[in-house]
TrEMBL record:
The keyword Signal applies. This is GM13117. It comes from the Eukaryota. Residues 91-126 are annotated as: Disordered. Residues 99-126 have a biased composition (Low complexity). It comes from Drosophila sechellia. Residues 1-19 form the signal peptide. The gene is Dsec\GM13117. Keywords: Signal.
Length: 126
């Protein structure tokens, strides 16, 4: 019974480690494969999935060239997305700044530094 429990713990630990490894940074997803032109490839037509660096997702690729690269050609969309999960998050632009301030609190006199008026506060004209 103890051996069965130990085997279950080892199997569960191995599965968790493998799942965590597939969600880490994988530099092979960003490698651009260089194939000869399609007109020079005489192999049978094949399909595979590869990571697209502009779309931030995996796409289906159809080619006549034989398989040269093993690391970043995936046989299914699911396996491509698992391996390239780290790179699939779209980069966000840096936060916009209103202007440059030289004094603390934004007292530089730039037009974007003025604090908005509180609509609930009584105005000086009243």
């Amino acid at each position: 019974m103890k051996l069965l429990l130990l085997a279950a713990i080892v199997a569960l630990g191995w599965l968790l480690i493998e799942a965590a490894k597939s969600r880490t940074k994988n530099s092979s997803c960003l490698v651009k494969n260089k194939y000869p032109p399609e007109s020079s490839c005489r192999s049978t037509r094949r399909e595979f999935f590869a990571f697209h660096r502009v779309l931030f997702d995996c796409i289906k690729v159809t080619t006549n060239c034989r398989r040269i690269y093993r690391r970043n050609e995936f046989h299914s969309l699911e396996s491509c997305r698992d391996a390239c999960h780290y790179h699939m998050a779209e980069p966000s632009p840096p936060p916009a700044r209103n202007g440059t301030t030289s004094a603390p609190g934004g007292a530089s006199g730039a037009p974007g530094d003025a604090e908005p008026a509180d609509p609930a506060a009584p105005s000086a004209a009243e």
